[in-house]
Inverse folding.
C-alpha cells in the first residue's frame, strides 16, 4: 500500500461520524472520520483505542471526566473504559483500534456505518 491522503479520505466521507478503513497493522484497523458538533453516546471496547486529532478538536467524557484532545494530539482510551463524545467536537479524527477476528476477516470496501451512535 502506498501513500494515503488522510484529509482527502475524510473529506470524501458521506457524513460525519462515518469512518473509513485506511489500512491494517497486525490486528489493528486504522480509520479516519469527520467529526461534527453533535455528541456520540457512551461506548466501551474490549481493546484499547488510540484517538489522534489531525485538525479541530475532540471533546470527550471519559468515565465522567472532561478531556479535550487538540490538533496533533492523541488520547489512548484504555480497554473497558466508558467514553463518549461531548458536543463541540469537529475536525478530522484518526482511530487506531483492534478488530475482532470475524470483522477483520470480513470482505468489504473498508467502510463502516459509524464509529458510534449519535446522541441526537
Amino acid at each position: 500500500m502506498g501513500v494515503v491522503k488522510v484529509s482527502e479520505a475524510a473529506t470524501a466521507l458521506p457524513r460525519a461520524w462515518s469512518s473509513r478503513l485506511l489500512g491494517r497493522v497486525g490486528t489493528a484497523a486504522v480509520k479516519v472520520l469527520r467529526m461534527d458538533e453533535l455528541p456520540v453516546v457512551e461506548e466501551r471496547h474490549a481493546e484499547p483505542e488510540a484517538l489522534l486529532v489531525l485538525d479541530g478538536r475532540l471533546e470527550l467524557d471519559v468515565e465522567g471526566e472532561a478531556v479535550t484532545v487538540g490538533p496533533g494530539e492523541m488520547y489512548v482510551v484504555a480497554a473497558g473504559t466508558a467514553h463518549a463524545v461531548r458536543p463541540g467536537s469537529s475536525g478530522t479524527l484518526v482511530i487506531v483500534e483492534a478488530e475482532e477476528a470475524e470483522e477483520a476477516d470480513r470482505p468489504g470496501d473498508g467502510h463502516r456505518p459509524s464509529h458510534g451512535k449519535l446522541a441526537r
